[in-house]
Write a structure and sequence with these properties.
- The chain has 192 residues and is of the alpha/beta class.
- It has one domain: Protein tyrosine phosphatase superfamily (Protein-Tyrosine Phosphatase, Chain A), CATH 3.90.190.
- Helix content is 44%, strand content 11%.
- The chain is built from 8 helices and 4 strands.
- The chain has a 4-stranded parallel beta sheet with strand order 1-4-2-3, covered by helices on one side.
Length: 192
């Protein structure tokens, strides 16, 4: 797989950010709840470029919450374009993508970026690589659907997402109830 113009890919949650500060992170994509205060963890990081998007990790619209939109995913893919363009100015880099827990928004963003930079790569291979980076990955299905359309994958990312969910439910059975409790039963159902 071609790196996303980068040599190291990391996905994590907010609580894991302090431990990443010594890993020479060059680029950060933060996906945060709109009402979360600015994170102090990045003060300890070396110089890096950071993009922050703010929306909730939900799959159905809810009053008072910001639903992921096509525009959010377009911003993620634009981040990927800029990351590739900046590759000519450096020899290596480390991309850190994080959300609150490092399970849903961040894994959807990373999968989208990997699919963008590897347009010929099979969808199941991309999800296997995502699991290698973040074994607990449960990508937000709305975000993957938007990425699927914007990357012109003709529904293949969404179909492979269902297979990924099935894999995750087998590997981590607790996800079935956990996701249902979070209002993500439609994603559990995608696993078949």
């Amino acid at each position: 797989m071609l790196p996303i113009a980068i040599s190291t890919l990391t996905i994590c949650g907010i609580e894991e950010l302090p431990a990443q500060s010594t890993r020479k992170v060059s680029h950060v994509l933060s996906l945060l709840d709109p009402d979360l205060p600015e994170l102090e963890s990045f003060v300890a990081y070396e110089a890096h470029e950071r993009t922050t998007l703010r929306f909730h990790d939900i799959i159905t619209p809810q009053d008072g919450r910001v639903h992921p939109t096509e525009a959010h995913v377009a911003e993620i893919l634009d981040f990927g374009v800029k990351l590739r363009e900046s590759a000519l100015k450096r020899q290596e880099g480390h991309l850190l993508v994080h959300c609150h827990m490092g399970i849903s928004r961040s894994t959807a963003a990373m999968l989208s970026l990997m699919a963008q930079v590897n347009p010929e790569e099979g969808e199941d291979v991309l999800f296997a690589r995502l699991r290698a980076i973040r074994p607990q990955a449960w990508p937000n299905s709305v975000m993957i659907g938007f990425a699927d359309a914007q990357l012109k994958r003709s529904g293949k990312l969404t179909t492979a997402l269902g297979r990924h969910y099935a894999h995750q439910l087998e590997a981590q059975p607790r996800y079935r109830q956990w996701m249902a409790d979070l209002g993500r039963g439609a994603e559990v159902a995608m696993a078949g």
